[in-house]
Amino acid sequence: MQRKEFIGNANSDGVVRHDLAQPLVTRFLRLAPSAAPHDRRIGLRIALHGCTYESDVIHFDGRSSLALRFPQKSVRSLKDVLRLRFKAMGADGTLLHGEGHQGDRLTLELRQGRLHLHVSLGSSQFLVGDGHTEVTVGNLLDDLHWHAISLHRHGRSLNLSLDRHAHHLRTNGDFEHLDLDYQLMFGGILSPGKTGSSKKSFHGCLESVHYNGINVLDLVQRGKPSIHVIGNMTFGCTEPRLSPVTFPASGAWLGLPASPGNDWFWVELQFRAWDSNGLLLLAPGHNFGTGMELRLVDGTVWANVTQHHKDGLLLNTGSGLGNGQWHTVEVLLRRNFASLMVDGDEPSSVHSMSSLEITTGDVVYLGGCPPAVGSCWALGPTFLGCLRSVQLNHQLAGLGLLGNGSGVQRDMCSIVDRCFPNYCEHGGQCSQTWNSFSCHCQGTGYSGQTCHDPVYERSCEAYKHAGRTSRPYLIDVDGSGPLAPVPVYCNMTEDGVWTELAHNGSHRDIEVHGSSREQPFTAYFSYGASAAQLAALLTAAQSCQQILIYRCRHSRLLNTPGGLPFAWWVGRGGERQLYWGGSPPGVQRCACGLRRNCTSPYHQCNCDSDSEDWQQDDGLLSYKEHLPVMQLVAMDTNRPSSMARISLGPLRCHGDRVFWNAALFTSRSAYLLYPSLRGETSFDVAFYFKTSAPGGIFLESLGLHSFLRLQLTSPWEVTFSFDLGNGPVEVRVRCPHPLTDNHWHSVRAERNLREAWLRVDTLPHRVVPAPPHGHTRLLLSSQLFVGASASGQDGFLGCLRSLTLNGAALDLEGRAKVTAGVHPGCTGHCSSYGSLCRNGGLCMERYDGYACDCKHTPYDGPFCTREVGAFFEAGTWVRFSLPALHSTTSPPQPRVLLEGQEELPAQPGQMAGLGDESWGLPDEDGSNIKVWRTGGSLEESISFSFSTKRAPSVLIYVTTRVGSNIAIVLQTNGSLQVRYQLGGPDEGLVVGSGGRSLADGQPHAVNITRSYSQLFLQLDHYPTTRHHFPAGSSLTLPPPTAIYLGQVEDSLAVDTAVRDLGRAGFSGCLSRVQFGHAAPLKAALRTPHAPGVTVHGRLLLSSCGAFPMTVPPLSTTRSPWTANPGADGSVGMPAGQPASSGGSADSAFVGGVIAAVVFIILALLVLIARYLLRHKGTYHTREVKPADTPEQSAGTANMAEAQPVFPDSLDDSKKEYFI
């Protein structure tokens, strides 16, 4: 499209003529003066000249019709073409109707101002009602303007165009031919016996009616016998004398003269509006303060009559009248009588016999009133809409000529349907007022002004990036594109993210009996997603797989070698596949045939041996183009004793080709080229970037008079700018922190008919509303330039990732491979997302993202947040030996590592772990943790959580090479005690938790850190306390040799006090046990048979000891830690004597009273809860019933019945596994 300016005259009376190269067909013409002499005012006189328009036009009066009769009794067509133009003077009426005796039908009708198309290509006894198709388009088609219809049908493909707005669809049913009997009717239904979707005939004009090459109106004009006419029809189009008036803005009004002094008043008018509130008519009375007000209130008509020194009268009727349709209101007022009726509906009209006296004034106001008349302004908004056919006291008012007013448009109704075409996307419901429209997006899965923004992430990888855990999600595979969200299960594992899509046969076997080649068994699988959704999901994934299992007894599968297969499956492409799980496409064999280990060496599948014993062929299908399995056919289970069971797993996809698709721009003149952006009415752009450069253009596209640009304009600011042809618009977001920090930042921008907005990271949206008038379409003609401007200037230096336009992903890596100055991929994800790796997990760089390495932590999971814990039965203990297998440099604190990268030496001042050299176990499920042992240690850290109901017991015991040890025990009264013995027998420290019992069945967290002579301890949520070793004590912990959990080995020489406390063994839960960089409990659970790991008894994987506590601490003001006092606050530990708790007698007495009161209250609450639960009813659980006591559990031989016994406050959903 080229822009053309028409130059006018430069003098006062000259005329300049311009001829158009192409004819102009338009309903409206807007004049936009662009320039004028600086010293003169613009004056304009314009005349449009064109050719005489000639066409065949016929007028229907609402009681007439015509029929085009066929030469044969019936006509069958595979292709139909219909074109016509119409001008409707009523909201309902039949434009065209034809039908056949086999149920075929073709109907075009108006219903409430909307065009309805009904097509049926026939039906059968097997497909009842499936062949009917109905389409509804347009609105306000009774606006006295010409509208053009074009209908093209070829078989089941149908194209319907109304005023150049096209709709493409396929008809329902299986038939393709249209069979019509006798005739095709226009304007109405010819005979009353014929069926039709509308009983009303058309009132209006038809022009240029062509059906399958036949000019119907030309045949009418020539009086051909194939045309049959009923009623009165005239050639030409008679314009109705309605004289409508438009009230386009608030404050518009029209005053009409009225007959004063009458004691009765009657008015009838027609209105149409989108707004549900507004003044229709105000008739002031002869006396001040009297009169009648007719108002639209919430879509209902209200008539309010005020009287002089009397009570007023209020009538209302109707509902939903602000729907854009013409409605008729009639009001009659006379002495002691009033009536109000809407749309001639007598049953719903309202009447009143109340006392009423009126005297009419000399004027009636429509739509509003002058500012001098304040009553209509005080009671509500003025009217926005159209009025016509106003009659006052049975006299038709000439609205186009009579009366004075302000702001009205006479002889026209300029109401506009802002919901056609419907700019609400994804099924959003459109509603409108006179000036604007709005979209209701509830239940669509989208949000925003036009329901364009997806509510859900587009992949499981994006949910993981947001820190989500494994659970079912909805994913929108094409973002803001046309595809609806898909329900999936996102499985976040340490190895990556798996997207799992279940089907209707998941988690069960399908048994097959009695099938043969003549009567095959077919299983159909549905995934709750359309073919387009499945294709998009598979395309975005890096790899996909699906396990397929065939269990057989005397039932053959592929009939190898060389035979006709007895089973096959069909993928989404609809093609039959003759290979089985574990085998590549095109090879008719099973996995055992590739491995050459089938039951029979003469066959390529186990089931092809036709054995009487149960056999199985299984494996993974991994060719994405064939997945998922949609059908499965089996045909060899009709012989005696033959049977088959088929199991198909869910579709599992791994990786995201969109989320991590990135490119690195290293030259300011380099850019990537993509096809032109198609976003006339709405578009969105989303991507991630990271850079250290102060500015650059992310993307740009140009048009003849428009452009689109996204740019980093400064280190703190991103700008989104565009021009629709009526001036540039800029949306700017300024960030409080620099965006040039070489971390990933997200950018999302959108433009629609209502607004334009820009968002950077998690900052609030910056929104610029769209102007009420002006251009609405963004027309871009150039290619899309990514990374620089169209001229190659102001280029971006850095990384762009996950670039999508209108939900469609752009392949940055593919284009970067063939573009100079741009490189595919971009590393450094851990600099932005490394904080998602918690609890000391290391962020590992990957080409397509990052992963959290939890090897050196007592946690696992994708973010190292899931505690690893176990339930210890009485007598169960774990020994974790620390042999010197090899030496490496001491590892640093958690940091970013690349896969395969060696660990760097510890930095100065960094905690060195347990020594200068380290040992490790093989890399296997977190057992390759590192502990330093050669030179001893001056610093240690221990952390864990536990829960138990038994005391005394040993929780953790650390042995060393030369007799020093660390013991963490529960004393007889349930209090916690930490015992450090360094060097000689008198060199150590004992710290206890006072008299408070921790053997209460609740989880408790313990954190211990020693640095030289200082010991820091924290229990649960209490403040950390600091303790000091006695002066002159040895501060070096010799190299540790083993870590014991739950109990100390009998053969080990330990302190007598510790031996006595741990004699009965620990019964309860331990979780997230960590000693330095060692995770002994995790190693025992993950690799129980690894060298250096000894498990005595039964160890059950459980999270019952996980923190936080279910009961808050009693007090946070008083520390639970008390030490045996010494001269300097430290405690020397005499050999063989347990430490005693310190503290004053008064505080002990007060603490005892508080503890007793709290204990009584808790006991009462427990008794009440047990009583209520016992009478509440039964419940179902998958857990095995626990033993009565821990002692009984210890003596039970069946592992499956051993379960921990804990209070009801613990989570019943905890899963436990046996080792």
Structural overview:
The chain contains eleven helices and 83 strands.
Question: How would you describe the shape?
Answer: globular
Give the low-confidence spans.
192-198, 884-933, 1109-1148, 1173-1219
Rg value? 42 Å
Quaternary state reads single chain
Summarize the biggest pleated sheet: 8 strands, antiparallel
Helix content: under 10%
Q: What is the percentage of strand-forming residues?
A: 35-45%
Number of strands: 83
Class of secondary structure makeup: mainly beta
- End-to-end separation in angstroms reads 75 Å
Overall mean pLDDT score? 81
Task: Count up the helices.
Answer: 11
Membrane topology: Single-pass type I membrane protein
Domain F5/8 type C: 1-51
Protein name: Contactin associated protein like 2b
GO cellular component, one term: membrane
